[in-house]
Amino acid sequence: NAGVMQNPRHLVRRRGQEARLRCSPMKGHSHVYWYRQLPEEGLKFMVYLQKENIIDESGMPKERFSAEFPKEGPSILRIQQVVRGDSAAYFCASSPSGTGGADGYTFGSGTRLTVV
Amino acid sequence: QKEVEQDPGPLSVPEGAIVSLNCTYSNSAFQYFMWYRQYSRKGPELLMYTYSSGNKEDGRFTAQVDKSSKYISLFIRDSQPSDSATYLCAMIADGSGTYKYIFGTGTRLKVLA
Questions:
Q1: What is the mean pLDDT of each run of 10 residues along chain B (113 residues)?
Q2: Interatomic CA distance for residues A100 and B44, integer angstroms
Q3: Which residues of B touch A109 (CB under 8 A)?
Q4: What would the mean pLDDT of A4-19 be, rounded to a whole number?
């Protein structure tokens, strides 16, 4: 049973380009969470999605960032017009229910975004 | 003041030593406490989770929560070079939804052979 799969592992974008990060949850999981880890900082919550619904996006920057989790396919975190400050590691996690976090959920290996 | 404080280290210990890693927090609503291990360039890996106060043991790892002091600890016995990693504490507040973790910045641990 594969874990949480994220791709690409590394992504380099020039300032102003768009970045698309993908997350395939564990089999049977319908809840996905995105976190961002800036250099020398802990992980920070960005967004919680269920299939076709955004449940909590309180950690997402107001502009340029969006997330979706369609009925079919992976969850996508999209960053438009990237800036150097977006350079970070982006991790997603999944759980079978919305209370899965209380037991500690499983993270993917992350996508490391570098903006040049 | 950050909600969760964690000494970034690095903490260097000889192989076989007992390691003590700690976090302090300010939000008394935190009820769930987790420890994650993160190797360089990898995702965080769950080590331990506890609810409310008390101790929990799993092999060489022991997690302690002292809610009266707002202080949590992770002890590693008989430390090995393979334990060299960054250790992150994470917490969830009751009522916030059990998905919004608040992480410490992590402590880098080096176990010297």
A1: 88 97 93 92 90 89 94 96 96 75 94 95
A2: 16
A3: 42-43
A4: 97
Distance CA B20, CA B22 (A): 7
State the nearest Cα–Cα gap between A73 and chain B, in angstroms. 22
Name the token pair of B67.
């809610």
Whether a cis peptide bond, with omega within 30° of 0, leads into B10 is yes
- Asked if B79 and B15 count as a contact pair (C-beta separation under 8 A), the reply is yes
The DSSP result for A27-60, as a single string, is TT--EEEEEEE-TTS-EEEEEEEETTEEEE-TTS
Q: Are the C-beta atoms of residues A113 and A82 closer than 8 Å to each other?
A: yes
Q: How far apart are CA B23 and CA B8, in angstroms?
A: 10
Site of tokens 């340029």: A64
**A35 interaction partners in chain B (CB closer than 8 Å):** 101, 103
Hey, is A7 helix, strand or coil? strand
Give the residue among A28, A22, A40 at the shortest CA–CA distance from A90: A22
pLDDT of residue A28: 85
Nearest to A56 among B41, B44, B97 (CB): B97
